[in-house]
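Entry type: protein chain
Record version: 2
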Amino acid sequence: MNSGITVLERAYSGFFSVLLVVLAVFFLLCMVRAVRGPRMADRIVAVNMMGTMVMVAIATLAVMLNEGYLVDICWIYAMISFLAVIILTKVYMGVLAEKKKKGEKKKWQH
């Protein structure tokens, strides 16, 4: 009876390990998208996606290592990631508004 539980634990351990590797690959792909762009909106979405994947990785580690405090860290990271994306979006919208304002001034000057 006990051998069935160890087989299941090994299966879950293997699944979680594969999941972490897949998340790492996707994280690197999002990092490439965040650096290369081409638009600022692509970069913001990539940063948001990277934050989400880090939260999933932390939650996976919490289950894998059976450590409850990692869930608390995941919640804190979620809040910080959310605020970071909101601030990035706000800054981007301000820069975009300034560019539009300068573009309108140039139209009136010609």
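Comment: The CA atoms of residues 27 and 69 lie 23 Å apart.
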